[in-house]
Design goal:
Helix content is 39%, strand content 17%. With 336 residues, it is α+β, with helices and mostly antiparallel strands. It has a domain at 69-277: Ribosomal Protein S8, Chain: A, domain 1 (2-Layer Sandwich). The strands form 3 sheets. Strands 2-3-4-11-5-6-7 form a 7-stranded mixed beta sheet. Strands 9-8-10 form a 3-stranded antiparallel beta sheet, with no helix packed on it. Strands 1-12 form a two-stranded antiparallel sheet. The longest helix has 19 residues, at 89-107.
């Protein structure tokens, strides 16, 4: 499959252009573009600008409110709820994280759920925002069913990602952003787009048997068997039930029913380390922990030990200079 390399700024402008052309307010379009390009810079292309066409299709079908006005209600000293008004999840999640950060700065912790939302993109964007402010960020989001429960044949849970961002003193933040499935659905879609096979264990067919052809994937598998399955249920509880949203098979499909509002829920928590310990010591210890991890002698077949998020950060440094790689078909959609 052909790819093309373009600068991040150009990709951002193209995405904003497509979304505003479809009726989205420019400020919301800019936030969506920021989150998508963030993913492409980190080589997490499954959550990058290739999603634009789907968002445009959903906008045009009426499944996302282009004139959404998300609102925040503070429900307690360190808690609150964002009602997304069926707008773009990227905008809604960013707003929820901002309120959680404000509460954490003042009171040590902030927890915000979001409701009446839609797909919000890579959670790393939001937890990194907290970490850049020397705060600890946690984010969770449920998604529509595509993952089989451990021991099950048919899907019940979503890929249900969870992310953590932890600041350090001189080193870049520790960023863990992972699906509770073996891989995100976007990686299956990317393999389909690029005409590649997938590793065994990523997905199963209608009989529940593992497959390597991405076009045969009916459901994904949880990572780590029962452990990933258990974490996936936790994510659904925090971002679904706690937010007053649906769970598992009751969540509307991302790639079906494009005219239906998805009503997704998200969960955000921000912790201010200075309320628990000496913040400078904490940040210095984070530096030390990551340096000591990186200095562990590598096992055969590995060049060295990386900390979570480090490989993506190295990609971002390079791609900010050299540009991001996207499928030619995606570029043609963005420029037509």
């Amino acid at each position: 499959m052909s790819t093309i390399v373009i600068q991040a700024d150009e990709a951002r402008k193209l995405v904003v252009g497509k979304l505003t052309e479809a009726g989205l307010h420019i400020h919301h379009a800019e936030k969506v573009a920021d989150v998508l390009v963030h993913a492409d810079l980190r080589n997490v292309n499954s959550h990058g600008v290739l999603r634009t066409e789907h968002y445009v299709n959903r906008l045009q079908a009426g499944g996302i409110n282009p004139g959404a006005h998300p609102t925040f209600t503070q429900s307690g000293p360190v808690t609150g709820v964002v009602d997304g008004d069926d707008g773009f999840g990227h905008v809604i999640a960013d707003m929820a994280m901002d309120y959680a950060m404000d509460m954490a700065k003042k009171s040590g912790v902030g927890m915000v759920t979001a409701i009446n939302s839609s797909h919000c993109g890579a959670l790393s964007y939001f937890v990194q925002k907290a970490a850049n402010a020397k705060l600890i960020g946690i984010a969770m989001s449920h998604t529509d069913k595509i993952v089989v429960p451990f021991g099950g044949k048919t899907s019940f849970l979503g890929t249900n990602p969870i992310a953590y961002g932890v600041p350090a003193k001189s080193k870049k933040p520790f960023i863990l952003d992972m699906a509770t499935s073996n891989v995100a659905l976007g990686k299956i879609l990317q393999a389909q787009e690029e005409g590649k096979t997938i590793p065994k264990g990523w997905g199963v067919d209608e009989k529940g048997a593992p497959v390597t052809d991405p076009h045969q994937v009916v459901s994904l598998s949880p990572f780590g068997g029962p452990k990933g399955y258990g974490l996936s249920v936790i994510v659904d509880i925090f971002s679904g039930l706690l937010a007053g949203a649906a769970f598992g098979p009751h969540i509307s499909k991302m790639y079906g029913d494009l005219d239906q509002k998805r009503k997704l829920g998200h969960y955000f928590c921000v912790i201010n380390p200075s309320f628990f310990t000496d913040v400078n010591v904490f940040l210095e210890q984070m530096d030390r922990m990551m340096m000591e991890l990186q200095s562990v002698e590598p096992a055969p077949g590995f060049d060295r030990v990386y900390v979570p998020g480090e490989i993506e950060q190295l990609h971002e440094e390079r791609n900010r200079v050299e540009g991001i790689s996207i499928a030619l078909s995606v570029y043609e959609f963005l420029t037509k």
